[in-house]
Amino acid sequence: MPQLSLYIDEETLKKVETAARMEHLSISKYVVGKLKESMNKAWPESYENLFGSIDDISFAAEREADFSSDTERENL
After folding, report:
1. What is d(CA 1, CA 29) in angstroms, rounded to the nearest whole number?
2. Of 1, 25, 41, 51, which is most buried, counting CB atoms within 10 Å of its CB?
3. What backbone torsions phi and psi does residue 38 show, to the nearest 5 degrees?
4. Using an 8 Å Cβ cutoff, are 25 and 33 in contact?
5. d(CA 2, CA 4)
């Protein structure tokens, strides 16, 4: 299996180590999983459940514009 070497700062390494430990994975398996996730073009799991979950007036559908007062355009 191919190997990859990375140069990473101490702060990021500690975050990776902590995250891997929390998921009960080796650092290698954790990083491989995250790389695969980042290259997956699919929507996140349960993305469709977000539809309608925001109750905010700024997310309301716009009214259809009234173009009755627009100037007639010249046909070319």
Report:
1. 13
2. 25
3. -70, -20
4. yes
5. 7
